[in-house]
UniProtKB/TrEMBL annotation:
UniProt cross-references to InterPro entries, sorted A to Z: 2Fe-2S_ferredoxin-like_sf (IPR036010), 2Fe-2S_ferredoxin-type (IPR001041), Beta-grasp_dom_sf (IPR012675)
Location of the 2Fe-2S ferredoxin-type domain: 3-99
UniProt organism field: Paenibacillus cineris
Gene3D superfamilies given in the database record: 3.10.20.30
Phylogenetic lineage: Bacteria, Bacillati, Bacillota, Bacilli, Bacillales
Protein name: 2Fe-2S ferredoxin-type domain-containing protein
Length: 100
């Protein structure tokens, strides 16, 4: 299986090579994908995203995510892009799904 991170922003979609240690949001910013964000600390939740594939390739949710997202959101596959850090190479699909 090829390592690929599919980033689906508001109007731009790109597939990039996932870099372990880097967040979904940082991948989006580095590759000019229109990913909403404000704070990068996990408090605004504008970078909220749906991980439809490859959640096992991400680090465990952070304390900031547990404070901001409901348990049901985790169950549905939601993470905060600024907090969801790539752990291992693999196929990951992330769509920016802000509340607003």
């Amino acid at each position: 299986m090829e390592a690929a991170l599919q980033l689906i922003g508001r109007t731009i979609e790109k597939t990039v090579v996932p870099e372990p240690g880097k967040s979904i949001l940082q991948h989006a910013k580095d590759n000019k994908v229109d990913w909403q964000h404000l704070c990068t600390r996990g408090t605004c939740a504008r970078c909220r995203c749906l991980i439809s594939e490859g959640a096992e390739h991400l680090e465990e949710p952070t304390k900031a995510e547990h404070l901001r997202l409901d348990p049901e959101e985790f169950d549905e596959g939601y993470r905060l892009g600024c907090q969801a850090v790539v752990k291992t190479a693999g196929k990951i699909v992330a769509r920016n799904k802000t509340y607003f």
